[in-house]
Fold Protein yihD.
Amino acid sequence: MKNHRLNELISLLQPEWQKEPDLNLMQFLQKLASESGFTGPLGDLTDDILIYHLKMRGVDKSEQIPGIKKDYEEDFKTALLRARGVIKD
């Protein structure tokens, strides 16, 4: 499981870091932390914050988070019936 997260983080981090080659890794991580609104010490920055921020970086602010988008239902009644198992996928 950890290998998957590491590979995902590296694949997301590499193209974004290449856009700013003048920054070293720690400077770039600090920039990502600031952009994501993280205010704690850099050592407390989690991989989840980095992964979601990198996925959403450069995307319209009204765009949904990828993990939530798959469960999104426009109609409340449909969402309720699906949650109760009345409607099957």
About this structure: Helices lie at 2-18, 25-36, 47-56, 66-69, 76-83. Residues 12 and 55 are 7 Å apart (CA to CA). The first helix runs from residue 2 to 18. The radius of gyration is 17 Å.
